Protein: Glycosyl transferase
Organism: Malikia granosa
Amino acid sequence: MTLAQALTGIFNSPTLDAAIWGLVTSWGACLMLVLTKRWHGALSMDFTDGIQKFHSSPTPRVGGLPIVLGVLVAWWQAPTEWKEPLFVLFVAGMPAFTFGLAEDITKRVGVSQRLLATMASGLLAWWLSDYSLSRVDVLGVDWLLNFTTISVIFTAFAIGGVANSINIIDGFNGLASTSSFLAFIGFGMIAYQVNDAMLAGMSLILASCVWGFFWINWPLGKIFLGDGGSYFIGFSLAWIAVLLIERNSTVSPFAALIICVHPVTEVIFSIYRRRVKQAHPGHPDRLHFHSLVKRRYIARWFSHLSMQSKNSITGLLVGGMTITAVIVANIVYESTLMSAICFIGLGVGYILLYLRMIRHRWIITKKTNWHTDK
């Protein structure tokens, strides 16, 4: 099946209607928040102080609200047979979204609390739907997942990890939204190829709600995703992946990992990097992959542009890397061996590129200086 055929199948009339409603709602709500920021700015603004702050003026960081509203409106317009699974996703995503939004507003919700909230969303999704991961195509692990308690706990941890990974890559205009938009499309294309029309439609609806936010966030950075938005999107991506694997036995779990390879690798490597530095895993720094791309390449190639333009170019460039993962996953999704090889290959490629940027070489040495600013 060609890419064009897959996209044509996903874009059937009922799905497209709901997706358009979600996109327009998300876009319109984002625009309203920007136009009315003087009324709610005291609560919603992301100010410019902080090690990971790259914007030059206070900006609303509650972009998750329009996306959630877009999903709700799309649910209202969705085909009847799709309302229940979409509603389960919406309700189950509320703990992740609520705790993230609370951090956006109060700046007082800890990393551990937000992680637990995303895991709670995973538990709630299982309780409402009875779906949890029963296989990952790894010898021994699949046997353990036959036990419901282990399966549910594993699923909650996996969902929490993916949700937090989207939060970690949310560093520049358009980065997290481009990456997640492409990931939803990628999941939808695989779902369509295995004749799971409902899941393909859900993926398109979620992609459209993220796309509505994108056009207010990029390129001018008028509104930010915030923790509420990144955690809700991350949970939604993880839950779509769980459903894709559990509803379709021909889809390898590693294919889902391929689509999320950038955020998953970023969060794992960030934890490792901070352990090397003897820093707390949740401690912010400017050594993320996207930060280095901007400092090493974008700042040099586009030195004549403003800081905001450089941020936006970096976000689109790094977010757009997900296209490669989507194409690969849609080719190898039926083969566990090929999917695993491709996932490992893309992960190793990320690490090699990272080491090239941090050390100007393709190998790691004992003298690696994670603080380098060269």
Summary: The CA atoms of residues 101 and 173 lie 19 Å apart. Residues 336-359 form the longest helix (24 residues). The longest strand covers residues 45-46. The chain is about 70% helix and 0% strand.
